[in-house]
Design brief:
Elements lengths: L4 H5 L19 E2 L5 E2 L32 H16 L2 E2 L6 E2 L1 H5 L5 H19 L4 H18 L4 H9 L1 H15 L5
Amino acid sequence: MTMPQDDIFTPNAARSRPPFGGAQARGKVIDQDGRELADGPLHPQFQGFQEGFQFDFRNTAANPFGNLTREQRLARLETIAKLLDVAFIVPGTNVRYGIDGLIGLIPVVGDIITTAISLWLVREARLLGAPWHITARMLANVAVDGVIGMVPVAGDAFDVMFRANIRNVRMLRRWLDKQPRRT
């Protein structure tokens, strides 16, 4: 059985309708106890739900990253960089490594994940006002770390020693320290 050509290009009206015909429900509305609910306005506390429900996390306490000061943002970047690059010590040595080195052990995917986190740090630096030449150097560090980190075994050792995220945050901190203080 073959389908006519026009059915392929012309959508069937019954198949292209939105769910429930895009109209108001036409049956009885029954609550969980089996009682029929009247078609009337909602309880006053639920009136806002009729127009649509929205979350605005930009200016509320629910967003932990919403209204941070410049120093708080920089402290967060430093913490993430330390976690990525120098959070742990190899027992019996002075060699420090971080989550970047551990996640990087997963071939390809691990390096993509850690490079994405490093790029997020660069984005945050840009949002803090870092000029193009600082962000370009930061991007170069991330690129070197990401590309060489893809090499099996040797790339993981390079990740542990190069510490691109620590370098980037120090570079950003030096640049911010040279800037005049805002009041």
